[in-house]
Amino acid sequence: xxxxxxxxxxxxxxxxxxxxxxxxxxxxxxxxxxxxxxxxxxxxxxxxxxxxxxxxxxxxxxxxxxxxxxxxxxxxxxxxxxxxxxxxxxxxxxxxxxxxxxxxxxxxxxxxxxxxxxxxxxxxxxxxxxxxxxxxxxxxxxxxxxxxxxxxxxxxxxxxxxxxxxxxxxxxxxxxxxxxxxxxxxxxxxxxxxxxxxxxxxxxxxxxxxxxxxxxxxxxxxxxxxxxxxxxxxxxxxxxxxxxxxxxxxxxxxxxxxxxxxxxxxxxxxxxxxxxxxxxxxxxxxxxxxxxxxxxxxxxxxxxxxxxxxxxxxxxxxxxxxxxxxxxxxxxxxxxxxxxxxxxxxxxxxxxxxxxxxxxxxxxxxxxxxxxxxxxxxxxxxxxxxxxxxxxxxxxxxxxxxxxxxxxxxxxxxxxxxxxxxxxxxxxxxxxxxxxxxxxxxxxxxxxxxxxxxxxxxxxxxxxxxxxxxxxxxxxxxxxxxxxxxxxxxxxxxxxxxxxxxxxxxxxxxxxxxxxxxxxxxxxxxxxxxxxxxxxxxxxxxxxxxxxxxxxxxxxxxxxxxxxxxxxxxxxxxxxxxxxxxxxxxxxxxx
Length: 591
Hints:
Lipocalin; 14 helices; Aspartate Aminotransferase, domain 1; 3 domains; alpha+beta; Rossmann fold; 11-stranded antiparallel beta sheet; 7-stranded mixed beta sheet
């Protein structure tokens, strides 16, 4: 019997507010900012000093403009849009930086000053002392302390130069939002009402860089290519055809991962070997009887090239096909780099427990790992997790803060069931439903954004309970779909919840997926269940445990301890973010 809505909301709210151990105030402080993502507020100076005279009589507006691991808050003084406060979650807490730009977008000579939060901060107040960069850049600011207070009604930014009389304080009324101002100088695009408007960039993918200036790496060699339909240049020409026709290059073998060279097979469907019809080159399947090339498959190549569009999630299989191949091939590997479509400056979720390694997670990386394919392999090799000879051909004109639709690269679905950028963003969380008897939306028009089950007859109540949690960047609507034959609930019409992305810069997909699991479990404790052991998993582990890289997720969903789980996973993400820094290839950008 479905649980009544008031009780369901109460149970979910209880799970959301009673953690098993104290929360880190850094997370609560940033969440207080994220809760106002997209909103702008007017402020006033308090006890201004003569040095603040340029601000007197000017309209002061703050705008909570970006709300991921980094929260960016432009501070506009009249028509001057040069200032942005930048709050970043670090392994130890929160960092505050001041981003100052000229009207043409270029950086001011004095910018990126600030510091780390002092110990003893709270969810409502953080104090940041000047760091060594600030002291070197602005000697007079060596004793600066910036204090930021966030309450339900007020945001206060204060500067105090200890040992001097210098003070600056501005207060903003959070009870009365105002229309968002224009983008700050140097921003890559406007975000009206918190929503992104995609720009057209000019990112040059690794395949074009290879052909333009690095062809010497493969000229005169027998080349194998691990790719699929997503390996292409900006004109849409397949990497298979580009290398086959490249002067001095002999393409001798192709290797197809899950979904095959042309990306047409269903998820989990075995893919056979054969011959590429266009080039006549032999195609070896790595998603059939074998998952890594055998010595016989590699005997006719001198170097192996990899070119596949990733989705930035550990549960995606392509990067692990590459890692397994690199570990066993005994051949040089060249990786033609491509964007992380859901931003390469975001890290979320737990680090995989190696006891649960499988093709949906081979190495100890975060669930949303914030790396490009080339950077991921650099990290694995650099940390000795992988023994391989790799070369990365980097992209040109790429920055970490870009969404895929901002790169200028033509979109192609990276796999059959990831049909939109919103689906790719939600995938690191809604993919968990693959490990349940509910459906993750395969067999519908919008997989990974539609979640349902035939027993979810109270889907309106479940959606209301999820909306009551006020997770940033998403809304939960109700719908029904007739599921295509061959999938869970195939041939039947079932109630479903539609996950609507309202602010992609604020949404935390892993948390969305976990809280949805708990909502289904609370509403239908008798009907909801985990799927059985994965046929291709080690030690016949449950599918949900392989997807999560741990058995802790299922246990937390059942016991109502998901807040404690999320706290631990957030700590994992912070540790992983720190570990990957030496292996990054691209700048953050000027968003």
